[in-house]
Write a structure and sequence with these properties.
With 331 residues, the protein is an alpha+beta fold. Helix content is 28%, strand content 28%. The protein contains 7 helices and 14 strands. The longest helix is centred in the middle third of the chain and has 18 residues. The termini are far apart.
Length: 331
């Protein structure tokens, strides 16, 4: 039977204990401690483990932490050391506290630690029933995988304060390039990521429909009337912008009829504030000039407004009121 100490909202131990089997019944205002350890080798690589496919939650997924709940009488640091040893076979010579987050929904306080180890990389010992494989990834590959794995997406916010202090080798030399047919799967993922962040989580039926339809769309349009500009890290597309070109009947506003719309400007969260969106926008506008595009339109969020202004876009002042017509779905 696993027993936890309970704490109040200020982090003080209340003297109460609770059984893990009754975790969903923890009273309001009471919390138990959970610890996570991000493990990094002295050479800079991060340890990832692959969850047992038989697990009820997130089976068969990569995760980047060892962790669990603190037992009664156990400090957060002692819990982190124990969980790290049990799940990986590695001892934590030192632990650096990255952050503490209260999670009222689960009545838990998460202590996130970093452990830098200096050991043989094949010294990892997996815990039966928990994980079945492991690998070490360098920083670019690790950050690139965050956008692909559901647990890593969930874990990222707790490690963000630390990861934001790291710089990807060669980052200052990054260049944007045009995506090709081989990138269709990655472009589909980035499109779904953009839509989920822009409009909120997609309904399961909508997400499945889009995931099935987008590859065919890209095969038909990519590098014909749709162009995608991307930045890669360790071969993974982490930032992108789409340019959809349309030839319209000529007017004084676009005397050659060549117009375009910017879509899907998106950078994976671990790679933001690194100038990658500017790289893809610069590549997009340079290619538009080469294609003799007369007018490019886009819809700017508050977060993106300064970027687009710096890329040469201006506010559009018009006497027209923007309207939209949508086909009704059959119900």
């Amino acid at each position: 039977m696993e027993i936890w100490d309970l704490y109040d909202e200020r982090g003080n131990k209340t003297g109460e204990t609770w059984e893990r089997a009754r975790a969903k019944e923890i009273p309001e205002g009471r919390y138990h401690i959970v610890c996570d350890v991000l493990i990094r080798h002295r050479d800079g690589d991060f340890l990832l483990t692959f969850r047992d496919p038989s697990k009820d939650i997130y089976p068969g997924c990569w995760e980047a932490s060892a962790g669990g709940s603190a037992l009664a009488g156990e400090t957060p640091e002692a819990c982190a050391r124990r969980e790290m040893l049990e799940e990986t076979g590695l001892k934590a010579d030192a632990l650096e506290l990255i952050g503490v987050n209260y999670r009222p929904q689960s009545h838990s306080v998460l202590y996130a630690y970093l452990s830098v180890v200096d050991c043989r990389k094949d010294a990892v010992r997996l815990q039966e029933g928990e994980t079945v494989d492991y690998r070490w990834l360098d920083l670019p590959a690790f950050l690139g995988l965050i956008g692909e794995e559901p647990i890593l997406k969930k874990q990222y916010p707790r490690y963000k304060p630390y990861l934001d202090t790291l710089r990807v080798p060669g980052e200052e030399n990054r260049r944007a390039e045009k995506a090709g047919i081989a990138d269709i799967d990655a472009l589909t993922k980035r499109r779904l990521d953009y839509l989920a962040e822009d409009s909120g989580p997609l309904a399961p039926g909508d997400e499945e429909a889009l995931r099935n339809a987008l590859p065919d769309y890209f095969r038909e349009h990519l590098n014909k009337d749709l162009f995608a500009y991307v930045v890669r890290e360790a071969g993974v597309i982490v930032s992108c912008a789409f340019l959809l070109t349309v030839t319209k009947p000529m007017s004084p506003a676009f005397i050659n009829g060549k117009t375009a719309t910017v879509l899907n400007v998106y950078t994976c969260p671990p790679f933001r504030r690194r100038g990658y969106a500017r790289l893809v926008m610069d590549a997009l506008t340079a290619d538009a000039k080469a294609r003799d595009i007369a007018v490019i339109q886009l819809k700017a969020t508050e977060d993106g407004y300064a970027l687009y202004r710096s890329a040469g876009f201006e506010d559009e002042h018009t006497k027209y009121r923007r309207m939209i017509w949508k086909a009704r779905r059959d119900t």
